[in-house]
Amino acid sequence: MASPPRRVSSPLLYSLASLPLFHALPIYPSSFLSLLLSRSLSSSSSSSSSMAPQEAAASVAQKSSSIDEAAPLRNRVTVVGSGNWGSVAAKLIASNTIRLPSFHDEVRMWVFEETLPSGEKLTDAINTRNENVKYLPGIKLGRNVVADPDLVNAVTGSNMLVFVTPHQFMEGICKRLAGKISGDVEAISLIKGMEVKMEGPCMISTLITEQLGINCCVLMGANIANEIAVEKFSEATVGYRENKEVAEKWVQLFSTSYFIVTPIQDVEGVELCGTLKNVVAIAAGFVDGLDMGNNTKAAIMRIGLREMKAFSKMLFSSVKDSTFFESCGVADLITTCLGGRNRKVAEAFAKNGGKRSFDELEAEMLQGQKLQGVSTAKEVYEVLSHRGWLQFFPLFATVHEICIGTLPPSAIVEHSERTPK
Ligand SMILES: NC(=O)c1ccc[n+]([C@@H]2O[C@H](COP(=O)([O-])OP(=O)(O)OC[C@H]3O[C@@H](n4cnc5c(N)ncnc54)[C@H](O)[C@@H]3O)[C@@H](O)[C@H]2O)c1
């Protein structure tokens, strides 16, 4: 196997990477240099929605001059999902497809159709106002985002599919798409979660590959959608299996001056980090709800990270230690335990002494957005019970038992602190 390439992600960083001086730099370059370079990058990669009209026109004109040669090879992108993160992903992608010659401008976005309280269809509202008024209000998606409520129609003709729905809906979506996607289509999953089947746990990227017969990368990271929507700097990790070129195409599609993407060859490690940190975030929320303070929360995060790593490596021996130090690992764990929706609802659950169910609190607090941590805790618990691993994972086991009411929220410290054998 070739030695791992230097981690460079933005177009300017790619061109810098060819300079001898750049290779002499002894450090992790992507985030540090991108901060230094963000000013010079911003004119070339800011979103079309935030450009002045003249700049947007110039960007499109510049692109169309190179379109003719690229036309037969241009990639078409569909985003399957239009929730909070799905809408932000569409915005990021649309800001790039409009300026990069190798992509068609238009980004289709499949919408699970809903009728708004006004009586208007969500799809019509998105296409009229260029804004997902329910899941990402106040943010323009880019005029080249086209919402479509017909799943099969939305993916037809696209060779790059971005899956970004709550994980519990993916089995049904795959069933509806099975047999309708050509084998050379590439997919990426931004979905945090897993399916537990009779034969064992199945990661969402594997579900996509098995049911649709296509290769699937993953993108995970410290990415609270609302912060990226307003273009605050953050990083993400693309996990790929073998084909680095495909991973680089995804990096190109997602990278902007404020969103730095690094490819690594560890699909399972990246996906398990994104999935399992939601269980730890539930534990962090219990700690907040019981006012246990920052030391306790840090201890819970540390124990959680240890269990994330052990669980991932026990399931897939290929998972790399270094993956836990990428954005998808420790950074995502920190941001989710400080600010995510799993933490927030778990905090309310603990404040109510476990007397109001997660379903009730989710419906009241999230207005249609979905929690992933509670269902993931259940799925992880099933794997642990089935494999006889419960005693090795006291934090994961305790989170599920609190969620289903077998233990009180205060058990999060009483039980998690048992040293796993
Ligand atoms: N929101 C974030 O900050 C964030 C960040 C990173 C990753 N993620 C992950 O992205 C994935 C998608 O989350 P999101 O934030 O875009 O969604 P969301 O929770 O904001 O919205 C729920 C979505 O599910 C759709 N939906 C409801 N019922 C459905 C059904 N029966 N079939 C199909 N779709 C249905 C809704 O229309 C809506 O688009 C999740 O796996 C989540 O963990 C979210």
Describe the structure.
By secondary structure, this protein is an alpha/beta fold. It is built from 20 helices and 10 strands. Strand 6 (194-197) and strand 7 form a beta hairpin. Helix 13 crosses helix 19. The chain starts with 10 loop residues before the first helix and ends in a 5-residue tail after the last helix. The structure holds nicotinamide-adenine-dinucleotide. Nicotinamide-adenine-dinucleotide binds at residues 81-86, 112, 114, 135, 164-167, 169, 190-193, 223-225, 369-370, 372. The site of nicotinamide-adenine-dinucleotide has 24 residues, from helix 6.
- Rg calculated over all Cα atoms: 21 Å
Spatial order of the strands in the main sheet?
A: 3-2-1-4-5-8-9-10
What gap, in angstroms, lies between the N and C termini? Answer: 36 Å
Helix and strand sequence = HHHHHEHEHEHEHEEEHEHEHEHHHHHHHH
Largest sheet: 8 strands, mixed
Mean pLDDT: 86
Task: Write out the distinct hetero groups bound to the structure.
Answer: nicotinamide-adenine-dinucleotide
Number of H/I helices: 20
Flag low-confidence runs. 1-56
Helix content: 40-55%
Approximate strand percentage: 5-15%
Helix-strand category: alpha/beta
Shape: globular
- Number of extended strands: 10
List keywords for this structure.
binds nicotinamide-adenine-dinucleotide; eight-stranded mixed beta sheet; 20 helices; 51% helix; alpha/beta; disordered N terminus; globular; 421 residues; two-stranded antiparallel sheet; 12% strand
What's the structural blueprint in terms of helices and strands?
Layout: H1 11-17, H2 20-24, H3 29-45, H4 53-65, H5 67-70, E1 75-80, H6 84-97, E2 103-110, H7 122-129, E3 145-148, H8 151-155, E4 160-163, H9 170-177, E5 186-189, E6 194-197, E7 200-203, H10 204-212, E8 215-220, H11 225-229, E9 234-239, H12 244-254, E10 259-264, H13 267-289, H14 294-315, H15 327-339, H16 341-351, H17 358-366, H18 373-387, H19 394-403, H20 411-416
Parallel strand pairs: 1-2, 1-4, 2-3, 4-5, 5-8, 9-10
Antiparallel strand pairs: 6-7, 8-9
Helix pairs in contact: 9-10, 13-14, 13-15, 13-16, 13-18, 13-19, 15-16, 16-17, 18-19
The chain binds nicotinamide-adenine-dinucleotide.
Nicotinamide-adenine-dinucleotide (NAD) binds near residues 83, 165, 192 and 225.
